[in-house]
Amino acid sequence: MEPYLFYVMAATSVVAALYLIFEKNPVFCALYLVFSFINIAVLYVLLEAQFIAAVQVIVYTGAIMVLFLFVIMLLMVDVKKKQKDDLPFQRIPAMVMGFVLLVVMGLAIKSKLFQGREGEYTSAKVESIGHTQLIGKLLFTDYLLPFEMTSILLFVAVIGAIILAKRKV
Amino acid sequence: MITLTHYLVLSAILFSIGVVGVLIRRNAIVIFMCIELMLNAVNLSFVAFAHYLHSMEGQMFVFFSMTVAAAEATVGLAIIIAIFRNKETVNVDDMNIMKW
User: Fold this and answer.
1) CA dist., res. A42 & res. B73, Å (int)
2) Contact across the interface for A17 and B37, Cβ inside 8 Å
3) Which of A2, A51, A59, B50 has an alpha carbon 20 to 30 Å from A76's alpha carbon atom?
4) How far is B63 from chain A (nearest CA, A)?
5) Which helix (H) or strand (E) holds A37?
6) Hey, which CATH number is domain B4-92, 3.40.50.1010, 3.10.129.10, 3.40.50.1470, 1.10.287.3510?
7) What is the pTM of this model?
8) B94 contact A CB<8A
9) What are the tens digits of pLDDT across the range A52-105?
10) Measured between CA atoms, how close is A53 to chain B, in angstroms?
11) Does A61 reach chain B within 8 Å, measured CB to CB?
């Protein structure tokens, strides 16, 4: 069951990502990206990261992509109008270089560089404590300083967005 | 049996698609979406490493990178709206006032 689910979700997320980069209408682009994100959320569940999967659906597809759709509809970008393209010859080299990047990353994966030391949180231990509880505990003990810095980052982002949107820049 | 390599290959494919999208698209909002796709590909490899190496660090980093992505989307879309107000376009080829 699990391998089939992985292959189905991986294939649909890759196909949705391909549609994203070749689709002309930005609204459909956003919807394909939502589809891809939800497939990735299912993969997080397969990897026993239920909390991350829930946050993926709530934050990415619920907040960020709705913000994108909102901006697209606010700007009303005319899809019928032919978009100017100053560098039409860039498409083929870009795809070739993307493929080369993929091959290089594949070689890096194939080499045994990613061996890493095994940690203490096995599936059974995470199961016994509870996944969300474990994340909450780590967030407020080992990762307290990054957590507080995250709050400052969000505060700065809110102020920046308001200032940029408020008056003529 | 699905191994770590499967997830890393999927993550590499999604990341490459995001890179190609950034290079071939001219709409600033779609370029932004491709950047979000690349962020998600990296998040996927973080979670895969966390699962297969029995560690929670990967999932904590995903948590923080999602926060950064949210902040980045907010400010970036505000910048795109500001540019649209001044130049009536979101095509990146028209935004060349810093070029000389």
Assistant:
1) 23
2) yes
3) A59
4) 7
5) helix A26-46
6) 1.10.287.3510
7) 0.91
8) yes
9) 999 999 998 989 999 999 998 888 766 656 666 667 788 889 999 999 999 999
10) 10
11) no
